[in-house]
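Project standup — Tuesday

K.O.: blocked on the structure for the chain from last sprint. Re-posting the sequence here as requested.
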Amino acid sequence: MTDTTTTPATPSSDGPHERMEVTGLADYLAAMTKMVFQAGMGAAVVKAKWEGFTEAFDSFDCETVAALSPDDIDRLCEDSRIIRNRRKIEATVHNAGKLLDLEAAGGFEDWLTGHPSPAERDKALRREFKLLGPAGIEAFLWMVGVGGPSLPVASDP
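H.V.: unblocked you, prediction finished:
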């Protein structure tokens, strides 16, 4: 079973899409959240606020994030440490809950790697998780070590 309380791993490069060693669901949520917030915003803006994201989303602990209330979301919409986009904050809360659901149903890692083809996996990711488009999915998969090296990075580990 994957640990749901670990602090997100340290990325292995300073590129726009950093590979990370995944140690638990928090790492998946951190990578997914980064892709959700970078959409339409750019990597540099998100990177500049990333420490604030980590603090505001309790180190991406899925149980804590999934349990955020509408009042908590309102508070985050006023939090200057992060990008205050309500739809993206709500997507992060939804995505944390979906990660927990898939973990409970047999394991997120097994779900992620258990599709018959990359195209089916990508369709499933778009269906299950909010605000992850094709480019975000490709970057997310690369960051967590599932996708290929087709994205620009500062260095390929």
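K.O.: great, moving the ticket to review. The domain at 25-143 is CATH 1.10.340.30 (Endonuclease III; domain 1). Residues 86-104 form the longest helix (19 residues).
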